[in-house]
Design a protein that fits this description.
The protein is mostly helical. It contains nine helices and three strands, in the order H-H-H-E-H-H-E-E-H-H-H-H. Helix 1 packs antiparallel against helix 2, helix 2 crosses helix 6 and helix 3 packs across helix 6.
Length: about 190
């Protein structure tokens, strides 16, 4: 990201000019956001090269990772994507018009349809995924982290995601998230 301050620089600006935000929670969020921005920008470049949007990539990759012959119901598809029902329907029509998916009636429920990944869709998603994984592999290899550190990082991120994606009790959710953050200011000073 040329012409941008680095995440550590931004964090230091906070230390100097907004000290109450100079804590582990802010540093975590800042670093995570910057990593996400950098990764997303590169992914979008790859998607565009292959004629896909991020949402189209998401749908096609979800179908591709389904058991062969790569068929899901719209509700199964929606469980793995970030699309609303209406947004997904529009996207499915676009992908069908391009020959990347097909749809068929559900024999058990004539009101529902199955979504099928076509051979053209399979070839396209496999090519774009291959390029994306190559880039991400290069990113990790060139990160300056040793193999053991990369494994440790992935393990820690996996644990963090597991804790954040776990079902939560809505009555205690706010308290469970807010309280640890309050103690993080002390973490940097002790």
């Amino acid at each position: 990201m040329p012409n941008h301050h680095s995440a550590p620089e931004l964090f230091e600006f906070c230390a100097e000019n907004w000290p109450e935000t100079h804590n582990t929670a802010h540093q975590f969020g800042l670093y995570l956001r910057r990593l996400s921005e950098l990764n997303s920008a590169e992914n979008i470049r790859i998607f565009k090269k292959h004629g896909l949007s991020a949402a189209e990539f998401d749908v096609l990759s979800t179908l591709r990772r389904a058991k062969a012959p790569h068929i899901l119901s719209p509700s199964e598809l929606q469980c793995s994507t970030l699309l609303s029902s209406g947004g997904q329907t529009k996207l499915l029509y676009q992908l069908q018009d391009r020959g990347l998916i097909s749809r068929s009636l559900n024999p058990e429920d004539k009101r529902g349809k199955f979504v099928h990944l076509t051979e053209a869709g399979k070839l396209l998603i496999e090519a774009s995924m291959s390029e994306m994984l190559q880039r991400q592999g290069n990113f990790l290899s060139n990160s300056g982290l040793k193999k053991k550190e990369r494994k440790q990082l992935l393990d820690l991120l996996g644990r963090l995601l597991a804790s954040l994606e776990a079902p939560r009790d809505s009555a205690t959710d706010h308290q469970g998230i807010a309280e640890p953050a309050q103690g993080l200011n002390k973490e940097l000073t002790t």
